[in-house]
Design a protein that fits this description.
By secondary structure, the chain is of the alpha+beta class. The protein has 2 domains: about 120 residues, Immunoglobulin-like (Sandwich); about 280 residues, Purple Acid Phosphatase, chain A, domain 2. The protein has 8 helices and 22 strands. It has a 7-stranded mixed beta sheet with strand order 11-10-9-19-20-21-22. The protein has a 7-stranded mixed beta sheet with strand order 12-13-14-15-17-16-18, covered by helices on one side. Helix 5 runs parallel beside helix 6.
Length: about 425
């Protein structure tokens, strides 16, 4: 309409502000938060407390191309009134460009935020993975303050954002409140945890753009990252969709995040997908599997492919130190490092080189790893530290048997 009114060609029109019509209001009660930012697209989520005329303004010298759409989801009767979840889906953006955006609404200060799309070529960048932010907002905030200092390109959250997903007020107090100053300009890629589940599907309504799925992948430079919801997705289907997407990527580095670990000895001692998961992610070509659920840090020695089968050496990490109460550690000879403290994982990728720093809430590095690839293969000194698939599976089998015996003994004691 703007082009027709001025009798100009849309392709050649250059503007300073692009306005995306949205229903806004006198108060922004959540966000804004960036979701799933790509080379030419970004999603901005925010919540308001009542209906009213308003818009999102994107500032930057860009050609007026693509479509800009918004949607509004009404959450009924929260503390006696409705609130409105807005999603503004911005398309037609230019790769590797920085934009300034703001939410415009009556009686609200026009605070500006930064947005940067992913470049088509990106050799060096860093990002953060952490999880289990629930229950203790002050602890979560301490972790976020350290994350902000690192200025990551994006953040992946491995689930359990809140204590009870059905209590809508917790989404603000335990997650959106503590991430202020981070989520406005840094894309948040979240996976659903068991505590996030609710009949109202609040996780999906807040974090999944319209028409997209809880299971999704994204590409950044030489990294392909896949996020799987292993709470609501059938195990076999989840492993199949994960493998299909990972195998289709030709990226140097391949990461996967889901909530409940497939390899975990402390805390819950979880083994999601046993006995299929460990060999499945190896055959798919995964480099790192980063999960949460147990509120500890565990980095396992790389797990070698099964004997006689092709596959990757997979490093499994449990990272549940985002704010929730700490769990107990457990000793194991398949662990390279463990800690029971608040923390996050900072990964830096520089082409074929990868550096991991695990940082606690005081800014202290508690673990560090440097590895590299040559023609798709990991450096030999890292491979030399690997444990066999059989040993990893035997550890899980032992944990499984101990749990079974414990349950049997518990039942016997109850019947006495």
């Amino acid at each position: 309409m703007f082009c027709k009114r001025l009798n100009l060609k849309c392709q050649s029109l250059v503007v300073l502000f692009l306005f995306v019509t949205a229903v806004s209001t006198a108060a922004i009660t959540k966000g804004p938060v960036l979701l799933r930012v790509g080379q030419n697209k970004a999603v901005v989520m925010f919540e308001t407390d009542s209906k009213g005329a308003g818009s999102i303004a994107v500032k930057g010298t860009v050609a007026l191309v693509g479509k800009f759409s918004t949607s509004v989801d009404v959450v009924d009767d929260i503390k006696g009134k409705d609130v409105y979840i807005h999603q503004a889906i911005l398309t037609g953006l230019q790769a590797g460009r920085s934009y300034t955006y703001r939410i415009t609404a009556p009686e609200v200060a026009a605070k500006e935020h930064k947005l940067k799309t992913i470049p088509t070529k990106l050799n060096k960048f860093h990002f953060v993975v952490y999880g289990d932010t629930r229950t203790k907002p002050d602890r979560h905030r301490r972790v976020v303050e350290q994350i902000i200092k690192t200025k990551p390109l994006f953040v992946v959250v491995s689930g359990d954002l809140v204590s009870s997903g059905s209590k809508y007020e917790q989404w603000d107090s335990q997650f959106f409140g503590p991430i202020k100053g981070l989520g406005e300009s840094t894309p948040i890629y979240a996976t659903q945890g068991n505590h996030d589940l609710s009949k109202q599907k609040y996780f999906k309504r807040l974090f999944v753009p319209k028409g997209e799925s809880n299971n999704y992948g994204f590409q950044v430079g030489s990294l392909y990252y896949y996020c799987l919801d292993n709470l609501t997705t059938n195990t076999d289907k989840g492993l199949d969709v994960l493998a299909k997407n990972i195998k289709a990527s030709e990226s140097v580095w391949k990461f996967v995040t889901y909530h409940i670990p497939s390899l975990n000895v402390g805390g819950h001692s979880s083994a999601w997908g046993y006995p299929k998961a460990l060999p499945a992610v190896s055959r798919a070509g995964v480099d790192f599997v980063i999960t949460g659920h147990s509120h500890i840090y565990e980095r396992f020695f790389p797990v070698a492919p099964q004997k006689g089968s092709a596959g990757s050496y997979v490093t499994h990490i449990t990272s549940g130190g985002g704010g929730a109460p700490n769990y107990k550690l457990a000793e194991s000879d398949i662990l390279a490092k463990m800690a029971d403290c608040l923390h996050f994982c900072l990964f830096e990728i520089d082409g074929n080189k990868l550096t991991l720093k695990v940082i606690d809430d005081k800014g202290v590095v508690i673990d560090r790893l440097e590895i590299s690839k040559t023609k798709g293969s990991l450096n030999s000194d890292y491979i030399a530290t690997a444990i066999t698939m059989e040993k990893a599976q035997a550890t899980l089998e032992g944990i499984k048997n101990r749990k079974k015996n414990k349950n049997k003994n518990s039942k016997k004691n109850k019947t006495k």
